């Protein structure tokens, strides 16, 4: 936990945190004028690197995002590019820095008009950045609408105008950027959809803000990376044996028998010393013939939950997962609930996924009250809506906050899955994942994730880190497989991911 330090490049800053960092930098002696000059230069450098000389239109808004735009325009003009600049705002209300660069611009200042786009090859979007508070209207909106219709290439400063850097939500229309240049650190909105999809390639530029200013801020959001958790990773002991690596228990149901098999195999691949799949007796043969290194144990008919409880009396069974293929039809729902409650009653690290969550849709409170030990819940959006309808409604469009509030309410680590998976701890910390390819949108990949997590929990990894590490490995494994991925490929590609991870991060 100590290693998730605030100066880390993976730290993410909300708009107000970035404002505080900016203020602290100024207090530490970096002039605001220099910050703006460096920001504008960084954007101009990125443009010069990506595009060849072409006709540029810089669209400057009323705040400091516009201020950056004046600087970019001047740099590109000095580099010999044909540059036009349009300004929407009032000179009187510009900040001192923006007013300075407004004056320093050597070209003409034009008003916003969509026909400016007729003579333009590249748009620099310096309309709104961190200060955006509402949807664009009037001239800026017309401009964005025209840029979208003409499919113009755009380089956005800080964020594409209309994207909320803190949440990734879009306030109305947004022109997608090919390149977005942001400053100092990424913002959550660069990683969360729809913002992430609108940024194009993201460049983070150093503008001279000293990293130690972050120490004074109360920061609690990171982009997922092994840098956050590799130091605590439960590397296999050189003198270890299988009992040092834990014994995970997976519950398997009667109908979707593939799901928990994927989970069990994934837990083995992640390094759990032993994995037991506990399944109803009438489907035992199906499981037993399909599994090799995983042990399969029978739960007697009509007393599955009691047998499951008995199995857990053995304290060596140190991590449990319930949900994949557990069943919700008819009596199965009650049984799934009982099995979940039996798992939680042990206070041992438990992963709840899929049916293990949905079984409590009628009364999520029963579930939350039963969570008194380490627990990781892995809802996708549908499951999340069933368990946390109020949070979902009140904070629609803010995935980060929804996940954080859900973790706090349930006292579990919550992995809110999707293309921009958020991992939230009940203590308020959150990690946004960014390495998962869209190939993961395939049946069973969530079951594998649950297995990766329980595999790490069995080895004694702390739940928040286990969750973050499993999500990251899942993304890496998917990248290894590439197009055509099916869920069973993921555990089988994990050894390559673990080997590369160990090579880079292991130190004895
Ligand atoms: N380290 C740093 O922080 C650095 C920051 N830098 C740059 O500063 C940017 C942040 O600047 P900023 O705070 O001035 O906000 P910005 O986005 O330009 O706009 C605010 C103005 O827009 C207005 N407004 C808002 N929404 C509106 C709407 N829908 N329609 C119409 N108007 C709307 C709002 O008016 P109000 O809401 O008060 O009515 C206000 O006048 C940041 O993104 C980065 O590019 C760099 O210079 C380097 C150092
Ligand atoms: N477009 C996407 N890009 C990246 N990852 C995705 C995408 N869609 C889904 N995923 C990931 O795939 C997994 C799907 O899990 P889930 O919805 O539970 O599927 P299943 O129930 O079929 O196992 C999650 O880890 C999720 O984050
Ligand atoms: K912008």
From TrEMBL:
Residues 225-501 form the YjeF C-terminal domain. (6S)-NADPHX binds at residues 64-68, 129-135, 158, 259, 325, 380, 447. InterPro entries: Carbohydrate_kinase_pred_CS (IPR017953), CARKD (IPR000631), Nnr (IPR030677), Ribokinase-like (IPR029056), YjeF_N_dom (IPR004443), YjeF_N_dom_sf (IPR036652). It comes from the Bacteria. Binds 1 potassium ion per subunit. Keywords: ATP-binding, Isomerase, Lyase, Metal-binding, Multifunctional enzyme, NAD, NADP, Nucleotide-binding, Potassium. Its EC number is 4.2.1.136, 5.1.99.6. Transmembrane segments: none annotated. GO terms for biological process: metabolite repair; nicotinamide nucleotide metabolic process. AMP binds at residues 417-421, 446. Pfam families: Carb_kinase, YjeF_N. Residues 18-215 form the YjeF N-terminal domain. Its cofactor is Mg(2+); K(+). K(+) binds at residues 65, 125, 161. Homotetramer. Catalyzes the dehydration of the S-form of NAD(P)HX at the expense of ADP, which is converted to AMP. Together with NAD(P)HX epimerase, which catalyzes the epimerization of the S- and R-forms, the enzyme allows the repair of both epimers of NAD(P)HX, a damaged form of NAD(P)H that is a result of enzymatic or heat-dependent hydration. Catalyzes the epimerization of the S- and R-forms of NAD(P)HX, a damaged form of NAD(P)H that is a result of enzymatic or heat-dependent hydration. This is a prerequisite for the S-specific NAD(P)H-hydrate dehydratase to allow the repair of both epimers of NAD(P)HX. In the C-terminal section; belongs to the NnrD/CARKD family. This is Bifunctional NAD(P)H-hydrate repair enzyme. The lineage of its organism: Bacteria, Pseudomonadati, Pseudomonadota, Gammaproteobacteria, Oceanospirillales. The gene is nnrE.
